[in-house]
Design a protein that fits this description.
By secondary structure, the chain is of the alpha/beta class. Helix content is 51%, strand content 15%. It is built from 15 helices and ten strands. Helix 14 (410-422) links the parallel strand 9 (396-404) and strand 10. Helix 4 (72-82) crosses helix 6 (115-136) and helix 7 (143-169) packs antiparallel against helix 8. It comes from Streptomyces hebeiensis. InterPro entries: Bact_polysacc_biosynth/exp.
């Protein structure tokens, strides 16, 4: 796992080097959001109607009315009145909501696929709620609410007149029985009048159950969330963030070897040093055939983004000093002059150019046994990391492995070491190459040696001689 700290520069490098892939994934996320809005979340519109509750109401009583407004009984009555095909009371319960507002107001909201249906749903739900609430409280609506008390008053008045008639028709004599009868009738009339008075006094309390729909619901003009625009933007943002987090997670889980000592340990050899290779614009890169490789190149995923940014290099003389020091350490590792194979992973352009420069520097060094030049004698071979094959031991006896940091895992590097062992070559050393940014201007006394590098690299995994 890579434990490097994630910085803003890392995010910027992802955006700069993976912008094509991120753009494609963002557009894909927008399309997924649009598809979700059409299939899973079709456009919805919400309209609201308000019901005013007359009288004094406590908070718990208002909450009870809210539950009644969203009950199955009200939903079934609403569905029966609307008569929408395939829409029953159970589905309307999911579309109708209610809440208690300030001022003894119950706000009933209905959601439908069109503004007209949403308006009709909320109006009908409010109307059915008022009728149902009046029924369960024992009251009525319209003329029924006032007809019953008026009929009762008429009956009481009629009873009072009958009592008066009976009292007048009693024995006009002053007998005890007649006096008692008249007294009983007067008490009965007084009791009826008191009962009617109490009934009139209790009438305002009964009006508590009165409810009034405060006009029709306003027709909605905007969609209810989540809207199509919200889903499209959300899908694009989600895919973009997942892509960035995926890149960061892959970088954190990257097992490619970055440090020279780790690479030398994986090869079971010693690190001879690190060398710099100037970046070249338009340098040849091995291209894999096939449509998948073309898609990778089109999306920009065929190049690594998580490698460190190349540092600015010194002049040509400083870089050549590093190569000479590597050749000097290599000669110290060899007991006697001999030929060596320079093993380079296939596709590692930085390592290939570094190997060519090492060959050129080795040729320019004098041999300790004679005045001739070319010690040690190096030959470059490129081996594929998936199935590495190194030429058998022959004129060359030993291998020098050159590769770039951050491109190969421990298993791949170990496979190269095993291939060298199979060819009976001892890995005498490891050289790590890193890209650098060359200066724009060069001194006149140090010409470029790129032509020499290009001529030095001809070997392949087949073992053909230079």
């Amino acid at each position: 796992m890579n434990d490097d700290t994630i910085r803003l520069a890392t995010i910027g490098r992802i955006l700069r080097l993976r912008w094509r892939l991120l753009a494609v994934l963002t557009v894909l996320g927008a399309l997924v959001g649009y598809g979700a809005s059409a299939v899973l979340f079709p456009p919805r519109y919400t309209a609201s109607a308000s019901v005013l509750l007359l009288g004094q109401w406590e908070e718990r009583e208002l909450l009870t009315q809210v539950d009644i407004a969203t009950s199955s009984s009200v939903a079934d009555r609403t569905a029966a009145e609307l008569g929408w095909s395939g829409v029953g009371g159970g589905e309307l319960r999911d579309r109708v909501t209610a809440e208690a507002a300030d001022g003894n107001i119950i706000k009933i909201s209905g959601t439908a696929d069109t503004p007209e249906r949403a308006q009709r749903l909320s109006d009908q739900a409010a109307r059915q709620f008022v009728e149902f609430a009046a029924r369960i409280t024992g009251g009525g609506t319209g003329s029924e609410a006032t007809a019953a008390p008026e009929a009762l008053r008429k009956k009481v008045d009629e009873a009072g007149r009958r009592i008066t008639d009976l009292a007048n028709a009693a024995d006009p004599g002053r007998t005890v029985e007649s006096v008692q009868a008249r007294t009983a009738l007067e008490k009965l009339r007084t009791s009826l009048e008191e009962a009617m008075t109490k009934l009139d006094q209790a009438a305002p309390a009964n009006n508590k159950a009165g409810m009034v729909v405060m006009g029709p619901a306003a027709r909605p003009g905007d969609e209810a969330p989540p809207t199509t625009t919200q889903l499209v933007v959300g899908g694009a943002l989600l895919f973009f963030l997942v892509a960035v987090v995926g890149h960061l997670t892959a970088a954190r889980m990257n097992r490619r070897l970055r440090a020279g000592p780790e690479i030398a340990a994986a090869l079971g050899s010693v690190l001879l040093g690190t060398v710099d290779v100037p970046e070249e614009r338009g340098a040849h890169q091995p291209e894999a055939p096939g449509p998948r490789a073309r898609i990778r190149r089109l999306l920009g995923v065929d190049t690594r983004w998580d490698t460190p940014a190349p540092q600015r290099s010194g002049d040509e003389a400083g870089r050549r000093i590093r190569y000479r020091r590597v050749c000097a350490r290599l000669r110290e590792q060899l007991p006697a002059p001999r030929r060596l194979l320079v093993v380079v992973p296939y596709g590692d352009e930085i390592a290939r150019r570094a190997a060519g420069q090492l060959v050129a520097e080795a040729r320019s060094e004098p041999s300790p046994a004679s005045s001739s030049r070319g010690y040690p004698v190096l030959r470059v071979v490129e081996v594929p990391v998936d199935r590495p094959t190194v030429p058998d031991r022959g004129p060359e006896s030993g291998a020098l492995v050159v590769l770039s940091a951050g491109n190969w895992t421990a298993e791949e590097v170990g496979g190269i070491a095993e291939a060298c062992a199979d060819g009976r070559h001892e890995v005498v050393g490891v050289v790590v190459a890193g890209p650098v940014r060359a200066r724009a201007t060069r001194s006149a006394g140090h010409p470029e040696d790129h032509p020499t590098v290009a001529l030095a690299v001809h070997g392949r995994a087949t073992g053909d001689s230079v």
